[in-house]
Amino acid sequence: MNKVFPSAAAALDGVVKSGQLLAVGGFGLCGIPEALIDALRDSGANDLTVISNNAGVDGFGLGKLLETRQIKRMISSYVGENKEFERQYLAGELELEFTPQGTLAEKLRAGGAGIPAFFTRTGVGTIVAEGKETREFDGHLYVMERALNPDVALVKAYKADKSGNLVFRRTARNFNPACAMAGKLTVVEVEHLVETGDIDPDDIHLPGIYVHRIVVNAHPEKRIEKRTITEKVTSKAGA
């Protein structure tokens, strides 16, 4: 089975459609599948529900899909860097399901592991628990959270072999593996593609059984979310 596609548009052809539930990897601006998001925008698919830890920033990442009004609902943990997101939400134009970050990660992990639901103490007594089943264990109240099984997962990895075995780099390993595992169909954008067998088995972070399509984006933009520089202080002689 050939998993490698010549472009992001080709990799999404026949895969994405309006009304789907999608998971998109990334943490802040790290590990964002930039080319796949652009191709999703260009596909015209709309009325989308998107699972993502962040919602991009204005003009980048999922922010592009917010600008084109293709997202109707977000399931997210942190959305504080996107003014268009804020505008749409406050205007009642965008639905939002706020989810604690650890709970969001576990909902994706559970989906990939075939676990339909789990109990957690996080969110008990808050709006997070409204309308959800609760149960007491060992004297503590827990809320039941359902797993997430997106129709399509869009993922960014550093390297893949042609069988789809993946290697992630640093923070990009945060939500991308969980999204890949949870997706019913997973499309991965990579910077480097090698032959099957070229990656040492001990170096593989996610096996290719979870990956259905691969596209190479050798030169992603890789924006920095917040750049902080310490000014170098030089001392004067004799001071």
UniProtKB/TrEMBL annotation:
Coiled coil: none annotated. InterPro entries: 3-oxoacid_CoA-transf_A, CoA_trans_fam_I, NagB/RpiA_transferase-like. One of its GO terms (molecular function) is CoA-transferase activity. Gene3D superfamilies: Glutaconate Coenzyme A-transferase (3.40.1080.10). Keywords: Transferase. Pfam families: CoA_trans (PF01144). PANTHER family: ACETATE COA-TRANSFERASE SUBUNIT ALPHA, KETOACID-COENZYME A TRANSFERASE. This is CoA transferase subunit A.
